[in-house]
Write a structure and sequence with these properties.
Elements lengths: L2 H12 L5 E7 L5 E5 L5 H21 L7 E6 L2 E8 L2 E7 L5 H24 L39
Antiparallel strand pairs: 1-2, 1-5, 3-4, 4-5
Helix pairs in contact: 1-3
InterPro entries: Roadblock/LAMTOR2_dom
Organism: Asanoa ishikariensis
Pfam family, one: Robl_LC7
Length: about 160
């Protein structure tokens, strides 16, 4: 199984936990790696989770609590839990009635596995697709129209008008 499929399978496995409704895997910079969520924009969840965890890390350091492990946000409509997954970040979305101990137990195991998979993904040679084939060439683009920069009577360049 290639790394991308293994990551997707690990995220799908979290849905087997009762009341877990999705998950997002992001880089430490908040860029989306993979997701298994409905009804929300995964890019937004990834970016906001990274910002929240960054604040949590700083908070833990500032008060001398050691290394950050996870951040929990509980709201009336459910909870979000973000876990360190190696160099990445796993965020799990659950319903309000979810058994948080079970969510933690399963998610911590999955986060560890995802951390290993993200390391494998990062170790792949640059410019290679996960299957070993080079990525397709980008489509050719038409050149941009040129601007007319001849001086006008006022001494300022003018843009060509269409």
């Amino acid at each position: 199984m290639d790394t991308d499929r293994a990551i997707a399978a690990a995220l799908r496995a979290l849905r087997e936990v009762p009341d877990v409704i999705g998950s997002v895997l992001a880089g430490p910079d908040g860029l989306l790696i993979s997701s298994d969520v409905d009804r929300v924009e995964p890019d937004t969840v990834a970016a906001m989770a990274a910002a929240t965890v960054g604040l949590g890390r700083r908070f833990a350091e500032t008060v001398g609590l050691g290394l950050h492990r996870e951040t929990v946000i509980q709201a009336d409509g459910g909870c979000l839990v973000s876990y360190a997954a190696g160099a990445a970040l796993l965020t799990v979305v659950a319903m309000p009635q979810a058994n948080l101990a079970l969510v933690h137990h399963t998610s911590r195991t999955v986060a560890h596995r995802l951390g290993v998979l993200v390391e494998e993904l990062a170790a792949q040679p640059p410019g290679r697709a996960p299957g070993g084939n080079p990525p397709p060439a980008p489509p050719a683009r038409d050149p941009l129209p040129r601007r007319n920069t001849r001086p006008t009577g006022s001494g300022r360049p003018s843009a060509a008008r269409s």
